[in-house]
Amino acid sequence: MIIALTVLVAVTVVCVFLDLSWVSATKSYSFSEVFDALFGNASWSANKNVREEGLPRVTIGIFVGAGLAISGCAMQAVFKNPLASPYILGLSSGASVGAAVGMLFAISFIPVAIQVPALAFVTCFGTMMLVYTMSRIGGTIRTETLILSGVAVSSLLSALVSFLTFIAGDQLSGIVFWTMGDLSHADWEEICFAAPIIVVSSVFLITQAKNLNVMMLGDIHALDLGVDVKKTRLFVLILTTFIVAAAVSFVGIIGFIGLVIPHILRMLLGPDNRVIMPLSMVGGACFILICDYLSHIVAPLYGTLPIGVTTALIGAPIFIYLLISRKKEVGWN
Fold first, then answer.
1. C-alpha to C-alpha distances, 297 to 257, 300, 305, 326, nearest whole angstrom
2. d(C-alpha 238, C-alpha 278), whole Å
3. pLDDT tens per residue, the chain (333 residues)?
4. What is the distance between the alpha carbons of residues 141 and 329, in angstroms, rounded to a whole number?
5. What would the 3-class secondary structure string for the chain be?
6. Are the beta carbons of 139 and 75 closer than 8 angstroms?
7. Is 273 in contact with 73 (CB distance < 8 Å)?
8. Are strands 136-137 and 140-141 parallel, antiparallel or unpaired?
């Protein structure tokens, strides 16, 4: 684990410098210029571009990537299903409905400063409970019912977001761009709000890693070994809901991180959640930085690609591969 963690951290640091090197569609800084700018020793324009524009974008990306990855890891353990993730099960769409409502309408009994994240959490948690209830048959959750429930609920919620976008008026472009995921408008105030929620929830998730390992053997075995399955499952789902709501309400929908990163790490390092969960956080941060860098490559021709599009272009083929490789499990044969 130490070696893997060291490698991932080193790659992430390189990705931070790589991502910060972008200035505009046609100009980038060298690593040495980025390093100097971080400490205020570069030119005025370089200091401004790196510290005031690039650093908030990279920082929120690190927290969001880490949070979504560990959320996906925890959900896959809870549902004993490698296809489970916040995006596939509709949590991102659920949070987006609440966030869109908060952006369009003023709710008198909710303070303005927390209106968007508060509504995102409520709708995200409601979505989780709905998908969980729909997919539970006879006390068990089957793969096909879980995926179908998530896709169905996600489609309905996406339609609601489309309706809200349709009636958004002057805020149309902002909501459309937000639904595709966007790190570029991050500021330090948002980071100070989202980061503690993501970090604290992630730490509590890691404390449940041992129980999740036992639960992956089956509920009956977990009960025999003294794990309170219902309490642990509810606790984990609430924590993942906090993380997804905090992420989506500030940067929009960024999918497939929670699916791709834990699955790759499990293939390389095995299923032990005590190892996979902390590594998923670093891997998720690294993945979102790479995607953000790739989003800038097409900038000279088309402008910077929304990061949600980039993560989907990479994550969707992996999801298709997982479905095909496990088609016996989901009843296709």
1. 20, 7, 8, 34
2. 19
3. 777 778 888 888 888 888 888 766 667 788 888 888 888 887 888 888 888 888 898 999 999 999 999 999 998 888 877 777 787 778 888 888 888 888 888 777 777 777 877 888 888 888 888 888 887 777 666 667 777 888 888 889 888 888 888 887 777 776 777 778 888 777 888 888 889 999 999 999 999 999 898 888 887 888 888 888 888 888 888 898 889 888 887 888 888 888 888 888 888 888 889 999 999 999 999 999 998 888 887 776 777 788 888 888 888 887 788 777 765 554 444
4. 13
5. CHHHHHHHHHHHHHHHHHHHCECCCCCECCHHHHHHHHCCCCCHHHHHHHHHHHHHHHHHHHHHHHHHHHHHHHHHHHCCCCCCCCCCCCHHHHHHHHHHHHHHCCCCCCCHHHHHHHHHHHHHHHHHHHHHHHHEECCEECHHHHHHHHHHHHHHHHHHHHHHHHCCHHHHHHHHHHHCCCCCCCCHHHHHHHHHHHHHHHHHHHHCHHHHHHHCCCHHHHHHCCCCHHHHHHHHHHHHHHHHHHHHHHHCCCCCHHHHHHHHHHHHHCCCHHHHHHHHHHHHHHHHHHHHHHHHHCHHHHCCCCHHHHHHHHHHHHHHHHHHHCCCCCCCC
6. no
7. yes
8. antiparallel
Tokens read off for 168: 């958004």
Residue 108: both structure tokens together: 């008198």
Q: Which amino acid appears at position 274 of this protein? A: R
